[in-house]
Amino acid sequence: MERALLLAEAAAAEGEVPVGAVVVRRSDDRIVGEGRNRREAARDPLAHAELEAIRNASRFLGGWRLSGCDIYVTLEPCPMCMGGIINARIDRVIFGAYDKKAGSCGSVADLSAYPYNHRPDVKGGVMEERCAALLKNFFAGKRNKKLNEIKIVKAETDDQLMRIAALADEIWHEYFPCIISEDQINYMVEKFCSFKAMKDNIKNENYSYYFVKKNGADIGYTAAKPDGDRLFLSKIYLKKEERGKKYSRRIIEFYEERCLNEGFVSMWLTVNKHNDSTIAAYKAMGFEISGEGVADIGSGYVMDDYYMEKIIGRN
Q1: Does residue 74 have a pLDDT over 90?
Q2: What is the pTM of this model?
């Protein structure tokens, strides 16, 4: 497993998910094949560590049957790799970290328990802490790098506000049709997100509007205003193709920094009661439902929302 970890570390150094594997001949405890994840470099979904180790072992031993061999791998094999292990007739699978999303040795499924013509013995959790830490640190680094691509830039000119108004019109019309009617979307965009509305917000209510930028490109916008000793997050919107990438977390972190710098004790926002995915996302970022209300916004339309709040300093 020490050798498999070194291979996993080599994969991580090249930007690959850190998984390493070695095939060991039991008769003399010799490594006869090794591999590491190379999916990105090879542009190949099959380039997993286990399959590379199995191929190398088969070439070294001169046959596809690897009876009398064990495979050590830093992460619980996926179903594809477990299929390769079974077909290669490997005797035992020894793995480190468990894979709760794709593991085939019990975490999600247990392919070794099926009545195939070969059933390898399986042992998991070997050097689990080190194997899991390597994966955790790798993905944390990837997330931080991705979040560092995101910049929050204040809109201060009329031209910038016009660009945000155009963004708002685009985002609202592709996001909200499943929740509210097209007529209500048009009404709310004009009332709350038009250039005129934004200018009024800034002049009369002390709003601040910001671009959300990714590598210099505008991918969304956000707005907030002071509300006593709290900060009201009025708007957080991203283009469709940029959602689900944890960029909203970067925006919330930006507002947390503002709260700390300006002495706000909490921040709060409103979410449509039927917007389940957004409610779940805010809960994951530490917000709690603190109330609810129905607001008349004119022309026969209402906003039926939950109020959600996050206390500053609480995870």
Answers
A1: yes
A2: 0.56
What is the Cα 41 distance to its own chain's centre? Answer: 22
Catalytic residue among 50, 52, 76, 256: 50
Which H or E element spans position 237? Answer: strand 230-238
- Checking 277-283 for CB contacts under 8 A at 24+ apart, the result is 279/306, 279/308, 281/248, 282/308, 283/308
- pLDDT of 146 > 70? The answer is no
3: nearest Cα among 126, 139, 89: 126
- Catalytic residue status for 34: no
Sheet holding 288-298, edge to edge: 150-154, 208-214, 217-227, 230-238, 266-272, 301-311, 288-298
CA dihedral 171, 175, 180, 182 (to 10 degrees): 60
Tokens of 63: 């046959």
Largest CA distance in the chain: 82
Is the separation of the CB atoms in 219 and 149 below 8 Å? no
